[in-house]
């Protein structure tokens, strides 16, 4: 019998939005934002007293590394060197540590440790646009039309919501943290922004990188903050808003959690990369991607349970994402430009999770919303920059391809050193072991101890809605 969880009514693509423009950045509100409940809101627990909790309080965690725009499966984990001149790129293939598994020559570090992860080569979804493709994979929305905002909450928000119902959280860190996270086309939908991530933007490799107002050390500042959190002084202006959301009854708890985050030294330590030795930081790469993944590892090790981060920005090339249309950038130059940084950062995170004994508790998933067209297209560049010729120059590109793509999985107790599924000789279609968005989501939920077949959450209209409409955990990826 299903468990019902009541929730209050509460043409040519330009590529994904620039990730340097955050949809929402709670941490930059500072103390004034705290006074307006931005931090208490993001950290709130279930506000309705007496509702049934769901599942067990697990210590498992998930890190999702997102490739916004969609990485080419052909230049990474599913190369097709014999597909013909209209399809094959300029890169050779290399053997990996797993017999029968070959990667693009751009991925030598991952090839050398392929026994520590599993490649799923048979992912497929039906939406060709960035918004719809992202919503299909991360929330299970079957709609193939691009929408300005999601209809269903993404798996990260759902997991945060369900985990929050399991009882008071002793760890000062929140359940869900995003470091430059994928928020452009996804979000909490009918669950509300209170279950969005604690969001951190910026370059963790920068000497000036910091997370504002986390783990305040100044005693005087802590005392001043405590005085400012006497929110009853402003209830006249807040009461009407909070009554609508039926959250006023939980105000004390929200205050306590936010104060804990802002004043607990453990929270500050978790975000402090200077506590890592130079050898470890060098291993990940002294760049934004490497340090983002190192910070992700620090946070799950410290108790964060849902962790997301996007690999975007200047390290991707001129348009700062993986959307390698010919008008955007030279698709092969772009892959060559970013591959070394990507290969180093991912291989370091995989090895680190295993060496630290986190590979049973922490599941790592690396994916984008889709792959790239096997057939190479050509168009005039719209601008010069890293991995792109001057405007007007004809250059190669690969367009959106949701019919077949690859992703990487490790940790979560799964058996590693293998590959699942297959595509045809050109990489156009799945010919073996097709997996869809529902299977992707159900697998992640399974690791988090959430029964996706039985769990329902009421939408805006009070209608019980399954968190996975169709799909089952992928057996080979179940720990």
Radius of gyration: 22 Å
- The number of distinct helices, counting runs of at least 4 residues, comes to 13
The structural domain count equals 1
Question: What is the CATH class designation?
Answer: Alpha Beta
Distance between the termini: 25 Å
The CATH topology label is Alkaline Phosphatase, subunit A
Q: Would you report the number of β strands?
A: 19
User: CATH-wise, what's the superfamily?
Assistant: Alkaline Phosphatase, subunit A
| CATH architecture assignment name | 3-Layer(aba) Sandwich
How large is the share of residues in beta strands? 15-25%
Global morphology = globular
Q: Which spans have pLDDT < 50 for at least 5 consecutive residues? A: 1-12, 17-38, 41-58, 225-253
Mean pLDDT: 84
Could you characterize what this model shows?
The chain has one domain (3-26, 61-163, 175-217, 278-477): Alkaline Phosphatase, subunit A. The strands form six sheets. Strands 7-6-8-2-9-14-5-15 form an eight-stranded mixed β-sheet, with helices on both faces. The protein has a three-stranded mixed β-sheet with strand order 1-18-19, with no helix packed on it. The protein is globular, with a radius of gyration of 22 Å. By secondary structure, it is of the alpha/beta class. It has 13 helices and 19 strands.
